[in-house]
Design goal:
CATH class: Alpha Beta
Structural class: alpha+beta
Strand order of the largest sheet: 1-7-6-5-4-3-2
CATH superfamily: START domain
CATH architecture: 2-Layer Sandwich
CATH topology: Alpha-D-Glucose-1,6-Bisphosphate, Chain A, domain 4
Radius of gyration: 15 Å
Order of helices and strands: EHHEEEEEEH
Oligomer: single chain
Length: 143
């Protein structure tokens, strides 16, 4: 399923859950502040985290538009990888829940072209989640 006017693309969805040793407020800010995203991705980043705002990550490899922002609980945005078929966008929904000792992130990434689903999932893990934990220390348990 793809945007009207383009060739049909077989798609799938990715669902991931990740825990970060921080508050949901801090994690939300990390995901929606241009300087922080540029820091953990170590790349050129442009983003305007507001409804209708555009973003570009990883030196333009990923781009899209924010559809819904409910600070600090939810982010919904379109997502397009540069190599995908023309005008094909997926949808990313991120929900943040505060647990006793961590922020729990639940990711649902829908309308992902089947041929790149595993690579996209690995990208989320290595370029986003692991980098946030490493750069900001959100992977360490605080005693």
């Amino acid at each position: 399923m793809s945007v009207a006017g383009t060739v049909n693309v077989n798609t799938t969805q990715i669902k991931m859950t990740e825990s970060f040793m921080t508050s949901i407020e801090e994690l939300y800010n990390t995901l929606t502040t241009q300087q922080l995203v540029a820091t953990f991705t170590n790349s050129s980043t442009k983003l305007e985290a507001k409804k209708g705002g555009l973003y570009s990550l990883l030196d333009g490899l990923i781009s899209g538009q924010y559809m819904e922002l409910e600070k600090p609980h939810k982010i919904v945005k379109t997502w397009r990888e540069k190599s995908w078929p023309d005008a094909h966008y997926s949808t990313v929904t991120i929900e943040l829940n505060q647990e006793q000792d961590c922020a729990k992130l639940v990711l649902l990434h829908t309308n992902v072209p089947e041929g790149v689903a595993e690579r996209t999932k690995l990208g989320w893990k290595t370029h986003i989640f692991e980098r946030i934990k490493s750069v900001f220390g959100y992977g360490a348990r605080l005693f």
